[in-house]
């Protein structure tokens, strides 16, 4: 696929490591006062004055976390940044810097890395984070990307997974299940393409869910929104693995139980219709699909009037005493225990 679109292939050896780093990062500028020294020395230097520093790292491996047969490299770069920024926002912090480390085999030409870095650069610009360093090395097979995101927050603004209390409301941003259904569509098209390489699928009816998979957006907007509403969550987490596993993390770390109401789970109409087409239960997809990069948080009940009616926020349940357990209250009012299914077991179903 890559070769069709990119006829020019410059081998990485032609540039050498320093030439490559310089070429890929030459357009990056520093926007934050806290970025004292960026790319070019042995280490970056940051200064957050009186604020706390928040750091999170993710490692993405070709064949495990991404498939380049349908993931354009520009999207991959963008998504790799989103995955990390989402973790910073889940601490109720502002993301300010990233470092980007890559390992690539010799099957990738310079043009491929330019594509990857155009996505990284676009994400960094749009989300206002400075690229302050990284590492570049070769791999025997495939591509690895590791991004570290750095952010800052006042100590009193930080939100952990551990602060939820019984009777707190459980709130989610946006809608769920889109990224997983987008993946189903892309996997199906990949199979069709294997049989008929000339197929030119019309995916326009799936554009929302395919975008949710290929070009997710981290919820940077929610941090100032909560601030403007005067709401500080008691606990928060981002939805990378699926609603059920994130709820279990909050319950575990906060020592509370939870009742989640099936009929409250926000689903986009495209997700509902794709679930019908693929004959998958939409609740299962929302619970176990993952990669939605929405935020899940708890608030004290008395804060409800402040968030009520906000189109970005949906109350989907409430926390209970820990001995009451973690349950889904289904549409027909039965109480189903929530277990961590995770992404892979669903893929097999
Ligand atoms: P070192 O040998 O000390 O690891 P490098 O030559 O790898 O240093 O890196 C030189 C500079 O370029 C450093 O500032 C490093 O953070 C930065 N850098 C290296 N690789 C990347 C990359 N893939 N993306 C962004 N910055 C990078
Ligand atoms: Mg290095």
List keywords for this structure.
alpha+beta; 36% helix; binds adenosine-5'-diphosphate; seven-stranded mixed sheet; 349 residues; 13 strands; Phosphoribosyl-aminoimidazole Synthetase, Chain A, domain 2
Detailed description of the structure:
With 349 residues, this protein is an alpha+beta fold. It has two domains: 12-157, 2-Layer Sandwich (60s Ribosomal Protein L30, Chain: A); 169-337, PurM-like C-terminal domain (Phosphoribosyl-aminoimidazole Synthetase, Chain A, domain 2), CATH 3.90.650. 36% of the residues lie in helices and 23% in strands. It has twelve helices and 13 strands. The protein has helices at 2-5, 12-25, 73-89, 110-126, 178-195, 207-214, 222-229, 243-254, 269-278, 282-288, 304-307, 342-348; strands spanning 35-37, 45-46, 52-61, 94-104, 130-138, 143-153, 169-173, 235-238, 256-261, 295-299, 313-321, 326-329, 335-337. It has a seven-stranded mixed beta sheet, sandwiched between helices. A four-stranded mixed beta sheet has the order 3-6-4-5. Strands 1-2 form a two-stranded antiparallel sheet. Strand 12 and strand 13 (335-337) form a beta hairpin. Helix 2 runs parallel beside helix 4 (110-126), helix 5 packs across helix 6 (207-214) and helix 5 crosses helix 9 (269-278). The longest helix is centred in the middle third of the chain and has 18 residues, at 178-195. It is globular. Mean pLDDT is 93; it is low at 342-349. Bound molecules: adenosine-5'-diphosphate and magnesium ion. Adenosine-5'-diphosphate binds next to helix 2, strand 4 and strand 5. Residues 21, 25, 39-42, 100-102, 131, 133-136 line the site of adenosine-5'-diphosphate.
């Amino acid at each position: 696929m890559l070769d069709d679109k990119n006829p020019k292939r410059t081998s990485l050896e032609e540039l050498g490591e320093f030439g490559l780093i310089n070429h890929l990062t030459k357009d990056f500028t520093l926007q934050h006062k806290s970025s004292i020294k960026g790319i070019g020395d042995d280490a970056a230097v940051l200064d957050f004055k009186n604020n706390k520093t928040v750091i999170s790292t993710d490692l993405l491996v070709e064949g495990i976390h991404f498939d380049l047969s349908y993931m354009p490299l520009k999207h991959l770069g963008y998504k790799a940044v989103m995955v990390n920024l989402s973790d910073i926002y889940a601490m109720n912090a502002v993301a300010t810097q990233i470092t980007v480390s890559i390992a690539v085999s010799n099957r990738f030409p310079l043009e491929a890395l330019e594509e990857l870095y155009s996505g990284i650069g676009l994400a960094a610009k749009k989300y206002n984070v400075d690229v302050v360093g990284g590492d570049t090395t070769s791999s025997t097979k495939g591509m690895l990307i590791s991004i570290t995101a750095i952010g800052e927050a006042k100590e009193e603004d930080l939100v952990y997974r551990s602060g939820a209390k019984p009777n707190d409301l459980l709130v989610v941003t946006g809608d769920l299940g889109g990224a997983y259904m987008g993946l189903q569509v892309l996997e199906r098209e990949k199979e069709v393409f294997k049989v008929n390489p000339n197929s030119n699928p019309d995916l326009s009816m799936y554009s929302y869910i395919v975008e949710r998979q290929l070009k997710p957006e981290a919820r940077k907007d929610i941090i100032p929104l909560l601030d403007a509403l005067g709401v500080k969550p008691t606990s928060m987490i981002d939805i990378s693995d699926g609603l059920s596993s994130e709820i279990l993390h909050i319950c575990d770390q906060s020592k509370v139980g939870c009742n989640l109401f099936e009929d409250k789970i926000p689903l986009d109409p495209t997700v509902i219709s794709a679930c019908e087409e693929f004959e998958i239960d939409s609740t299962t997809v929302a619970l176990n699909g993952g990669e939605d990069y929405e935020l899940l948080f708890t608030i004290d009940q008395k804060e409800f009037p402040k968030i009520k009616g906000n189109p970005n926020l949906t109350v989907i349940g409430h926390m209970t005493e820990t001995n009451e357990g973690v349950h889904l209250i289904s549409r027909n009012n039965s109480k189903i225990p929530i277990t961590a299914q995770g992404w892979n077991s669903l893929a097999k179903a």
